[in-house]
Amino acid sequence: MSDRERSSVEKEARRGTPGRARTPQEKPRQDALGRYLAAVATAASERSDAEEPETAPGTAHPGPPRAASAPGTSEEEPAALRVRDVMQVPAVAVPGDMPFVDVAHTLAREQVGSVPVVDAADHVIGVVSESDLLAKAAVMAEPRRHGAVGRLWQHRLYEKGHGDTAATLMTFPPVTVHPAERVADAAWTAARARLKRLPVTDYHGRIVGVVTRRDLLRALIRDDAEIRAEVESLVGRHLLDPRAVGITVENGVVTVTGRVDRAVVSELVASLRDIDDVVGVVDDTEAV
């Protein structure tokens, strides 16, 4: 991952951080998002220089991904999670000729912020979102704006605001992923394009599912209970009496308490920091 790309990811993360004080409900979400971005950055940095250039946000998926390495090769781990392992099927999609009002009803009924738009052969031709519908609603509410700002505003919304169907309101070309892609690569695509939902298409561009940022998040990082289980297993290998220490895990941060030999604790803490998805270790132990 280049310094420029890392800086871009960090800037996007700061933009998404609320300017007001976080509520108790917001902090876990922000912590999880931070862990997600860290996982995406790690996945991106591990990419081989021989891979094809990434698709820029707002462009269509370039086509079938490279074939996975044969079993026994070291290029890629055979057990890597794929999009097909986490995607949602069947995917909700709307036809290009669906009227504006019906698209709005579909988004409300499915409780989603966007849906793929497909043609008669189920090829994904675009994505229509709440933002697209808001442009239509804004023009309907006030079709004419006066002054320089009003003209600029109207110019930007003209294409979407005067559409009446999913095809005329949608954003295109769509950003899509393939079922055989690694979850880490799909997460990088979603992060760069700033999308919460990605249509999943086959080699011919036909929709086969949808994968959300939450699906990718759950696949990329383990929850605290899973991390705690590995921590307790590791503690059991370092200490003769694992009950001598207390372990808590919250949002990926491991806290160790108890009375333990200082030399043993130092080695234990170093090992805990190497566990995947552990974002920090707090040593609250007392030396004996």
Which range does the strand content fall in?
15-25%
Gross geometry: elongated
Unreliable parts:
16-22, 53-60, 62-78
Share of residues in helices? 40-55%
Separation of termini?
44 Å
Q: What's the story with the biggest beta sheet?
A: 3 strands, mixed
Strand arrangement across the biggest beta sheet: 1-2-3
Classify the secondary structure makeup into a structural class: alpha/beta
Number-wise, the strands total: 8
Spell out the CATH superfamily of the largest domain. CBS-domain
Question: How many domains?
Answer: 2
Average pLDDT for all residues: 76
Query: What is the annotated CATH architecture of the largest domain?
Result: Roll
What is the element string, with H for helices and E for strands? HHHEHEEHHHHEEHHEEHE
Characterization of the model:
By secondary structure, the protein is of the alpha/beta class. The protein has 2 domains: 55-62 and 81-220, CBS-domain (Roll); 224-287, Histidine-containing Protein, Chain: A (2-Layer Sandwich), CATH 3.30.1340. The protein is built from 11 helices and 8 strands. It has helices at residues 3-15, 26-45, 83-86, 100-110, 130-141, 147-161, 166-169, 183-193, 213-220, 224-238, 262-273, and strands at 94-95, 114-118, 124-129, 197-201, 207-212, 245-250, 253-260, 280-287. Strands 1-2-3 form a 3-stranded mixed β-sheet. The chain has a 3-stranded mixed β-sheet with strand order 6-7-8, with helices on one face. A hairpin with a 2-residue loop joins strand 6 and strand 7 (253-260). Helix 2 (26-45) packs across helix 8 (183-193), helix 5 (130-141) packs across helix 6 and helix 10 (224-238) runs antiparallel to helix 11. The longest helix is centred in the N-terminal third of the chain and has 20 residues, at 26-45. It starts with a helix and ends with a strand. Residues 16-22, 53-60 and 62-78 have low confidence and may be disordered.
